[in-house]
Design brief:
Length: about 140
């Protein structure tokens, strides 16, 4: 497979979470991808741990909130950009970028202080992309 060149910011869809055109910060410094969510609540479904959570799918309209649910794949101890360690829920969800779809691991956290609701880390990009940090939206030409 030929790797595509991505910029520092790109658009993605998370179809299982019913999110489209989400601005994602491409971050080669992060191993794992992360998504900003609020109000995480655990529940059991078919003897497995699931969570429900709120997402703000539109960066330009933070009042818009959608409630989603996902199966918990595990919990991961992550060192955040502020150097604090926290335990985060991990889900696996499909991502679509530039027409290609594959599954990624996503940790759920409070990114409300950050500019972007989602970080795309190295593990999710592996085998798919080469990063050119000088530009944004290389896949969509939105720059």
């Amino acid at each position: 497979m030929t790797k595509k060149i991505v910029g520092a910011v790109e658009l993605c869809d998370l179809p299982k979470l019913a999110i489209t055109d989400l601005n994602v910060r491409v971050d080669t410094g992060a191993a794992t991808s992360s998504l900003h969510v609020d109000n995480i609540e655990e529940f059991e479904k078919d003897n497995e741990l699931w969570i429900t959570f709120d997402i703000h799918p539109d960066i330009h309209d933070v009042k818009r909130i959608v409630r989603r649910e996902a199966k918990v794949e595990g919990k991961k101890r992550v060192k955040s950009s502020t150097a604090t360690r926290e335990k985060r829920y991990v889900i696996i969800t499909p991502i679509i970028m530039d027409g290609d779809q594959w599954n990624i691991q996503l940790t759920l956290t409070d990114r409300s202080e950050m500019t972007y609701l989602m970080l795309l880390g190295r593990e999710a990009m592996s085998g798919h992309f080469i990063v050119d940090p000088e530009h944004d939206f290389l896949l969509t030409g939105k720059d």
